[in-house]
Amino acid sequence: MKMFLDKNKPLHTCDEKSCDHCDVKELVYCHFNMKLLFQFIIVAIPCFIIGGIGVSRFNPWLLIPWIVFFVLYFGLIEIRVMCSHCPHYAEPETKTLTCWANYGSPKLWKYRPGPMSLTEKFVFFSGLVIIIMYPSLIMTISEQFILLTVFVLYAMIAVFLMHLFMCRRCMNFACPLNSVPKDVKDKFMSHNSIVCHAWNQSEKQ
């Protein structure tokens, strides 16, 4: 089984026969690789390690509900409300995601092109708030203010770095955190009629 999609093969949603001479591939990450996955891990994981240290210093048993929710949210819930809107999710040759943020998560639901609903956005942000606030509250209660400060600062840095290097080139335009410029989105849509049609239909409703 391939770890990542063939970088020379257009996406399943793409209308093109080849990636050669594409005016989008240098602007949007249509394909992922180990370098991008490692980059995401380096940026995101330390924040959760710091939070886990803060929780375990207060009570190691309190790590269990946080880890359980962490796995359920990033492995199932987020996949349903956000990832299933991404063109990468539509790839028929993989049963799991091979992207940077949710690598290995099962594709249990059908591909749903188009934007997220208000309910999905609420669930998406609520899950992130719970993930971040859980260790923050515990570190506040246990007066671990130095570690809490490090946790908050690193979380802010991680969000900034993801926005700068990842969100600005991510093909999941449905994600509320996506920051790909409109002109680049339009170029991507011009090559992906399935995605373009779904977005146009949602705007008419």
Which helices and strands, and how do they pair?
Blueprint: H1 34-58, H2 63-81, H3 118-141, H4 145-165, H5 182-191, H6 193-204
Quick overview of this protein structure:
The chain is mostly helical. It has helices spanning 34-58, 63-81, 118-141, 145-165, 182-191, 193-204.
Could you explain how this protein is built, in words?
With 205 residues, the chain is mostly helical. The chain has six helices and no strands. The chain has one domain. The mean pLDDT is 92.
List its salient traits:
205 residues; mainly alpha; 54% helix; 0% strand; elongated
* Main sheet properties: none
Shape annotation: elongated
What is the average per-residue confidence, as pLDDT, rounded to a whole number?
92
Radius of gyration equals 18 Å
Which stretches are low in confidence, meaning pLDDT under 50 for 5 or more residues running? Answer: none
Q: Please provide the count of β strands.
A: 0
Helix-strand makeup class? mainly alpha
Strand content: under 5%
Tally of contiguous helical segments: 6
N-to-C order of helices and strands: HHHHHH
Estimate percent helicity.
40-55%
CA distance, first residue to last residue? 40 Å
Count of all domains: 1
